[in-house]
Amino acid sequence: QQRIAELKSKKSKERFGSAIPIQREEFIREVTNASKGNTFDSEEKDSKGDGQWVVVELFKDGIQESSRMTQLINELAKRQSATKFVRIRSTECVENWPDSNVPCLFLYNHGSLQHQVIGLNEFGGGDQSSVEKLEWVLGITYKLFTPSFAEDPFQEKFTMRRDFIHRKADDHPDDSDSDGDWD
Q: How many C-alpha atoms does 31 have within 13 Å on its Cβ side?
């Protein structure tokens, strides 16, 4: 019975799984109130307020980095289904929001903005950004959740090829220093 209770608890926490597009008039309900953990369960007729992370992606069509962030957020939302992910057009969320600050993530909890992350640099930058790096930074740096893997994706993995190490001497011209300036 304890295992069944644990599975039910996990299932109730993992209720999202996608990035939900929202409009300005939905922001308070979908972000501010949701980040307070306020849910209304019709069976219990009670409001709960444990705090819930909500990741808000500010995007703008036609900006390459914004399109990349959208891809990453959509994939991460599937992996971290206990975290709520929403998307809103930048200028609909914040009037006159500069294009230079797109993409941007607002990280909400307990009813207020906790962190703001602008651009992809923190996640590897441009084509070097990945869902693993995004998950690692949000999980480890900002403590939104536990990443689904244990190895830091920013650590480069080096592998040596045996054929690279064992080259024939005649593969390279003589590199000896004949001018004698290395005393």
A: 26
| Strand 104-109 relative to strand 54-59, pairing | antiparallel
CB 102 within 8 A of CB 58: yes
| Greatest alpha-carbon span in the chain | 88
> Do the Cβ atoms of 22 and 87 come closer than 8 Å?
yes
Task: Say what the pLDDT of residue 104 is.
Answer: 98
Other CB atoms within 10 A of residue 13 CB: 13
107 within 8 A of 144, measured Cβ to Cβ: yes
DSSP 6-57: HHHHHHHH----SEEE--GGGHIIIIIIHHTT-EEETTTTEEE-S---EEEE
**Residue 102, exposed/middle/buried by CB under 10 A (0-12, 13-18, 19+)?**
buried
Distance CA 36, CA 52 (A): 6
pLDDT in tens, 109-142: 999 999 999 999 999 998 899 999 999 999 999 9
Residue 96 contacts residue 150 (beta carbons within 8 Å): no
String of DSSP letters for 104-128: EEEEEETTEEEEEEESSGGGT-GGG
Q: Smallest Cα–Cα separation from 133: which of 65, 66, 49, 72?
A: 72
Residues 6+ apart with CB under 8 A from 61: 89
